[in-house]
Design brief:
Blueprint (H helix, E strand, L loop, with lengths): L2 E9 L7 E9 L2 E6 L8 E4 L3 E5 L1 E7 L14 H15 L2 H17 L2 E6 L6 H11 L2 E4 L2 E2 L14 H15 L7 E7 L7 H14 L2 E6 L3 H11 L3 H7 L7 E5 L5 H10 L2 E4 L1 H6 L7 H7 L2 E4 L2 E2 L8 H16 L6 H8 L1 H6 L17 E5 L12 H8 L5 E6 L2 E5 L2 E2 L4 H19 L1
Helix pairs in contact: 1-15, 2-3, 2-15, 4-5, 11-12, 11-14, 12-14
The protein binds zinc ion.
Length: 439
């Protein structure tokens, strides 16, 4: 059925950053017209007066497996957080608990206008994450987290190198292109500290052969640079390039502790940095210098990371922080609202190789879009630019409708398709069983 979203402020995020007042026609899952649209007979009409329509958010670094640990791993630095909370939790997760965690994460993201994400996965049960994404109707690049080295890693998380690679290749075969192309596979070595050089080199070669994505954490803490400097006499980013991790289908989360040479390396190899401002603050990792990445021409994206280090999976929170964080260091105009909304939408789509399908509102593209209520919330009134209102003043509660591939996944602020009450009760039950097993 055709759908017409009427009387909206349409923030296209196209090459000219056009903002259009009018309607959007959705037919066969795609944007069929923008502007002054004559509604076809029988079309469903959605009045979006006082609302903005934007391309859906893309979060390029997420851990849907970790959601059950939300609010249970606070006030720690990264290594303690991983060794004492997150790895024991991930080691304990069974399939049904992982399913509950992934559903909770996706419900939260969808209600906040995110319909595409890149997931770091966990060591086991990756098929469950694929099944949940398939069922959700949204898009994701998913992958199995790979770990074959490190201290204080639970036995169940420590992998044999060849088996880790073999399982990743199997998962690529099953999930890359699944769900009508909504799911892509990314190879996900956790970070340099958790992986042998052999594993990283094999991943680099195999991903290049398969044309697959690579996702890892990089230079989140100074410790990663010390680690690679001690062993190989080079920075973490140089090491990752040396072992074949960099490239145009590589997305590195964080990039907080980098030199100018590292930035040049990232730009030269077209590697993406996913900025995760909440996570970097909460784990006391630092603040990524985003204007410097822009200056060097590094590709960038935005994401919430995992629920235990945030504690939300909300792109509005990340946008606001991304805008505010740079200002004390680089001046008030260093990260304007337009730039931040682009980071959260179009740049995210570009980072995942999806810009031909999503990331802007243009005729022919997939209808992955969000209707945001601006006029019925005292906190977003009375005026200002649409970018300012969305980036600085909006919250997840302003999201009214969300479409993914032309299917409505949020209607009047309510989840469509999934019973939110069950998602929540399942998550509480799974939290109870997994934490009992961790003891
Ligand atoms: Zn992460």
């Amino acid at each position: 059925m055709a759908i017409v979203i009427q009387n909206a402020t349409i923030v296209t995020m196209d090459d000219s950053m056009n903002v259009v007042t009018g309607d959007i026609l959705i037919e066969d899952g795609r944007i069929a017209a923008i502007g002054d649209v004559e509604a076809p007979d029988g079309a469903r009409k959605i009045d979006a007066s006082g609302c903005a329509v934007i391309p859906s958010f893309v979060q390029s670094h997420i851990h849907v497996c970790q959601t059950l640990m939300r609010n249970c791993a606070d006030d720690m630095v990264l290594i303690d957080w991983l060794q004492t909370r997150i790895w024991p939790y991930e080691a304990a997760l069974n399939q049904s608990e992982l399913r509950a965690s992934a559903r909770l994460a996706i419900a939260e993201m969808v209600l906040g206008g995110t319909t595409a994400f890149l997931d770091m996965g966990t060591v086991h049960h990756t098929d469950v994450i694929g099944e949940v994404v398939q069922d959700s109707g949204i898009r994701a690049h998913i992958g199995k987290c790979m770990m074959d080295y490190g201290e204080k890693v639970p036995d169940r998380m420590m992998e044999n190198t060849d088996e880790s690679v073999k399982e990743s290749v199997r998962l690529h075969g099953v999930w890359d292109g699944a769900a009508d192309g909504r799911i892509r596979y990314a190879f996900c070595p956790r970070f340099a500290i958790s992986c042998t050089e052999s594993l990283l080199r094999q991943v680099g070669e195999i991903a290049a052969d398969l044309g697959a994505f690579i996702h890892t954490h990089a230079s989140e803490t100074e410790f990663e640079n010390e680690f690679t400097d001690e062993r190989w006499g080079m920075s973490n980013m140089s090491y990752l390039r040396e072992v074949g991790m960099t490239g145009e289908r590589s997305v590195f989360a964080h990039g907080v502790h980098v030199s100018d040479d590292d930035c040049q390396l990232l730009a030269d190899t077209k590697t993406v940095i996913c900025h995760c401002p909440s996570s970097n603050l909460k784990l006391a990792s630092g603040i990524a210098n985003m204007p410097r990445y822009d200056k060097f021409g590094v590709r960038v994206a935005l994401g919430a990371d995992g629920a235990p280090c945030n504690n939300n999976l909300d792109q509005f929170v990340e946008m606001r922080l991304a805008a505010l964080l740079q200002k004390p260091f680089h001046g008030p105009t260093s990260m304007p609202a337009e730039r931040v909304l682009k980071l959260a939408t179009r740049d995210g789509a570009e980072s995942l190789g999806l810009l031909s399908e999503i990331g802007t509102l243009e005729v022919g593209k997939s209808a992955d879009l969000v209707v945001i209520d601006l006029d019925n919330d005292p906190g977003t009134n009375p005026g200002g630019t649409v970018y300012s209102r969305i980036v600085y003043a909006c919250h997840r509660s302003n999201v009214r409708h969300v479409f993914a591939s032309g299917n409505q996944v949020v209607d009047k602020g309510e989840l469509v398709g999934w019973d939110l009450g069950k998602v929540l009760s399942d998550s509480r039950e799974a939290f109870g069983t997994v934490t009992k097993r961790m003891l």
